[in-house]
Amino acid sequence: MSTMSKIIQDDDMPAETARPRYEKLPLIALRGICAFPGVLLNFDVERDVSTSALDASVHYDRRVILIAQRDIRKESPRPEDLYKIGTICQVRQVLKVPGGGVKALVEGVARARVHGTTIERGYYLAEVEEIPETAPRKTAKLEAMTRRAVGMFDTYASMSNAVQRESVFPLFGMTDAGAVADHIAQNMFVRHEQKQPVLEAFNPTKRMELVFELLAHELEIQSVEMEIEGDLRARLEGQQREHILRERMHAIQSELGDERESGGDDEISEYRRKIAKLRVPKEITEKLNKEVDRLEKQHFGSSESGLLSTYLDLCIGLPWNKTTTERRDINSAIKTLNDDHFGLEKVKERIIEFLAVKQLKPDHKGTIICLIGPPGVGKTSVAISVAKALNRKLARISLGGVHDEAEIRGHRKTYVGAMPGRIIDAVNRVGTRNPLMLLDEIDKLGSDYRGDPSAALLEALDPEQNYAFRDHYLELPFDLSDTMFITTANSSSTIPRPLLDRMEVIEMSSYTDIEKLEIAKRYLLPKQRKKHGLSAKQLKISDAAALEIISGWTRESGMRQLERSIASVCRKVTAQIAKGETKSVSVTPDSLAELLGSRRYTAEADIGGEIGVVRGLAWTEAGGTTLDVEVNVLPGKGALKLTGNLGETMKESAEAAVSYIRSRAELLGIEPDFHRKKDLHIHFPGGGIEKDGPSAGITMAMAVISALSGAVVRPNVTMTGEITLRGRILRIGGLKEKTMAAMRVGAKTVIIPADNEADLEEIDQTVRGALHFVTAKHIDSVLDVALDFSNIAPRELSAPRPAAPLQRDIKTDFPVLDVHQPMPQPMTPRPEPPRVRQ
Fold this sequence. Notes:
By secondary structure, the protein is an alpha/beta fold. It contains 25 helices and 29 strands.
């Protein structure tokens, strides 16, 4: 649709008789434009319903109502698809054009509101209410705004190619603010959604404000467009000029016979010289020379030449043969590792072994280590320290959240925006072929329709294949066999088995409170003092205060919360010194509440001495924790209810425990038919946390036995182990973290599966000294360790439970508790007596 405008002067207005405020008029829907009072509008009429309405206007004194439709995509809009406010117009001219179209010229008369529509002989007839124009209150602000709007529209018309310059001239003779606003809005090249609010503004002052804002916005956009167009024109002119000069230079060289043998310019010659200096296999040299030949044939400024130049720059810049001198002094490496980290003996031992092998066999390759442990135990910092100890450059790649295989292996260079994968990019960044490459958070890799990044890592982490690693972008074999890979993860359960099989796993467990104390004294406190500008004299934290922070303000496997707490203390002390309140501070346990606020964590109350409540142990990615189990016995019909946000494996463990108890009910002093008369409700507090796994089987069994038999749970006893239908206790994982959790809550005795006895050697000496470990193969052998049956009448018990004398196993030099022999069990072997480890 095209528009043109004309100002209707008072002298040109035809004499008309007074019209009623309400009248019925044919309705024409406008698509993409708005009609305003006092202007002429020229538009095309194509829809049959609009043509019929235009024809019917002769019966209504050639008057129609024009209303814009909300969605211009609708071919046949209904009345509800139109705005409610439109313009009553006088039809001045109707012209039929070749091809069947109709052009209409109308003149806006007044704003109007539509109250209803009906269908009359193929067109819409609308009942409209004419809205009279109100005279604005003339103020200096309104006059200034009107003048400014006229000037801004003049500037807008000169900058925009879509607005005719002649549309500005009538404005200089107009004084009415509302008419000026209507004229400007009609002639601006903007969407109808922006014009409609101006049409619906009945107050001339408000109408002028809307037009003023619209002009300011459009002028800003026009300025930006002109700036972009100017930059583009300058860039194209520069490229064209350079292209013409180069073509003339080639023509002159051809005429003089002085064209170089290489057939290219300085850039091509430079690429060939660099490729000739590379000490790489013939396959790579031939591939790169072919790419140079392709570049030589490209026209200057073409997109292909830019892609080829980027590719050649990457290939030539890669460290094909460049390596850093590795430090093989074992004593120096030990000192570096000890200076940076406390403990972590397994990791340090493995690095020393690597150096020892390097001394005897310098060409040793294929070292891939995976550090698995809870957050904050120092996995990433250990890798950085190892790179420092070995004098290797560190290339760190974060894999958390990576879903695209191309992130690892790169994109084919035929794609727009193609780039190499993260591995080649990291090698190119550090500029050496033998860096220490840290693949952080390898257990957080994802996979979707774009591929599986973990599968792409199989080649890079395989010593038998990575000597010829092929990146999709590079398309050339690159030797990664001298690269030392260290990966980190919080859990091995989410790492694919083929990928985990290629790595040597070293588990980094949680820190004990004593280890945290030493780390805080040696590393964290000096680091935070330096960061906050404090000296050792200005801030002292006693060992008792540090241990109080560890137990009362942090509860974690790693060190991050502890470091933040120490940083908070440093900030408070710095503020006190800066205010002049003190010159130095010695932090004691009594002053911690003032510096850190109220204690966040309190010691967990012992749940012993109750019936049907047992404390178990659990493992999480953040370390070990305790897991309480509560059982209620209710009158019913044998229903088993499990609550506490439990997974399927945990629910099956509960069912297995109840089945075992049913098979041993009489021997346990439990009514044999309890499964018909009683309902069991097993609950795990902390319903907001999802729980799953089989290791709570023994805990649930003990809680159910206690609830059904009335036996009291012994205080300070925790346990972990998977249970079978026959009562056997099977091996579990995460024992080290679980035992640390038991020590933190003040437990004294821990029941563990006999198959985990060998794992006790890996437990910290502090934990082993604080806990008694009872190992058992069958649940019958540890009933008296966990439960106290003394409150049950002797007649209710099927078998006596004698006291257990304490003995010593000379072979292991550990105290052994020989508890009662297991109760008779048909068709099953006699379980071995439990052994207590300290």
